[in-house]
Amino acid sequence: MLESICDACRAIDFEKVLKVPASEFTVHREVRNPYDTYPDLLLDKDIDRLSQLQDTDCSLCKILASTLCSTEDEWSDPGIVEDALLSPHKLKAFSFLRNCAWTSEDVQGAQDCYMLLAPRSSTYSSGGGYSKWAWRGEAGYVACLPKKREAGLFVPQIISESFDSIKARSWLRHCKRSHGAACNEYSKTIPGLEVIDCETLRIVPAEAGMQWVALSYVWGPHQSQVNHGDTEPGSLPSDLPRTIRDTIEVTKALGYRYLWIDRYCINQEDAAKKHDLISKMDIKYRGADLTIAAAAGHDENFGLPGVGNTTRKKQAIVELNSCTILSTGPDPASETENSRWRSRGWTFQEGLLSRRRLIFTEHQSWFECCEGGWMEALGGPELLNNPDEARCTSGKIGRSLDGRLLSYHLTSTPLMADPNDRVIASRLDQFAHIVGKYSQRDLTFDTDSLNAFAGVSRHLRDSHPQLSHIFGIPYMVPSNAPLALGSAEKYMFYFLSWIHNRGAPPRKRLDFPSWTWAGWAGGMGWMTGRLDGVTALEQKMRNIHFEVDDHLVLPEAYFDTFDSISCQIPESDVILCFEAQVVPPSLFSWDTYEERREISPSYDSIDGQSQKDEEIPDGENQSDNDIPDEEDQGDNDPSEGESEMSSESPPPDPNDWDTWAVGNNRLWDRAQPPDCDPATFIDNLEKGRWDCLLLGDYNGNAGYSHRRFMLVIEWLDDGLAHRVGSVVLNRQHYLDRGNIFFDDTELAWKSVRLI
């Protein structure tokens, strides 16, 4: 091994790191100076040679290249970034506990070691207690360890070539013994549920008190039907896909006997029973004692890495005379985030609803529950005599994907004095975050837009306070959550005012109404990342109700127990009716007031909230609804400090929606504008083919976030219309001219029937 190391790497004195006690690296920053740097030890003052690493035989160069740190994060000051880019990457040793998102100093028995990082500067982010490099993504974590060492809690380890069932059992045992109701209380039974007996490989009826494991995986492009009318009723096919075979082995290795897999445990030929079971996905996955997620490969033929004949990708390890340089491999949560399993619509609720998830990536397995997360590459609760010792006093251990979305409750704000409204706003805000993440997923069939969400819908309807929905638009059941007079319609306005996220134009799903997010493919959201309650909503639209083709008004009670799968009314037949004011094309203008472009409308500096989606699960910068960072949103050149109207700047483009305003304000840069150029849009308004309708305003974040939503519709025959997009205005009252968006008191009203 030493023969393959280059001279530059040989010159690095790793031995001096091991001479410093790890405890000296684990210190808290001074309270009076939150920007104070963490202790570090310089190993190489310039390793920029690794940033242009080509083909090399040096094994240490390859592993050290993954320690290079980006200078920028979402909180970076442009001036600091520019200065840092002029300095080289410096290889340093830091506290592993302090710089790994999977560890915590607050856990009894936690042991520190040395992490290798190569930043350009020593400036750290002030948020979260970790350095800004704590989330290493695909780079993973590189540690410098002594040759003679003992395993310890949170200390990096060599990942075995085979799945470590002993570790996985310890994760399960720790969760069951140490965690609360979110992980352990669930007692619902499902009439007609069938499971696979992993000992006999037969499908058997589930019995009361039975524990089962569920599998979440990606189906292949061509699925053969399982013949439930075989001469051997209840038997599995002999040619099982590799992922299915591997899952059966893991189930038995963990001490379970029964396994639920949708393809084999739902009779695909019995449509009525199939629909009933699909609508109860929440019970199957939340009721499972564990869900195994196959996040490696593209379909069920890939297998579970480390099980059977499915191999894992090799871990990077370099053995030196004085120490071991070891990489944990890609952060397993980030690797999962980028997997095909994570991109599919049906797997969203399977992962979200499960209380415990054992996830297989191409490098290792990792565990996530409602209160913790562990991975094979780090020492875990298997090293402790008492599992209770692995409790974190300051929050959740480890990374999480969606672990807290179902348990998230909005912190009350001064705008929400009504306790009942706090509860209702919290539940509706939870729904908004869940739908925002779900909308990022892909579906093979557009008709599954609500079917693949039915388990989540059922879970929210069975929780307190009850939340139903009207083809995807949330609806609070009045008998369960009494609303103040007018609140129901205000919340209806807000959730009808959904937006397409800025980026690729969305695609219409033909089987759904245009007024619901479920009728469109593509990421979406609402006017804010946090709903501040009914007092933040200023409704402009009125007389909101739903009809079917014969003008029959659907009563609100119809939606109290709405189920998209068993619904007898075709989605396309439900008409949204309301009255709204028409925004004339004369209010639209090409805004050449360029100084305003230097201020990003995606950041409200007064309340300190980035308009990136608030990190609900764990404070991670991993939101599926993230938008491009500030440096991608304008043409500013902070290094020169020149006006945008300088001779070097391109002239404003009238075809760019970002240069247009309505009244006093420009369009919000998070919301996708209509899918046409501004000139075509204005022409459609002037000729009456389209209308721009004012639905209402959002005034939240203690009064510092102001947005106005306008719905763009196209008129059809018979007085009907459909949605074609939206225009959302953003006003920063301390910067933008004018105290109102525009005067709407004299705008004409129209009745709208939207399909």
TrEMBL record:
InterPro entries reported in the protein's UniProt record: HET
Record domain Heterokaryon incompatibility: where: 212-350
Region (Disordered): 600-661
Pfam families linked to this entry: HET
Biased composition, class Acidic residues, residue ranges: 615-645
The protein, known as: Heterokaryon incompatibility domain-containing protein
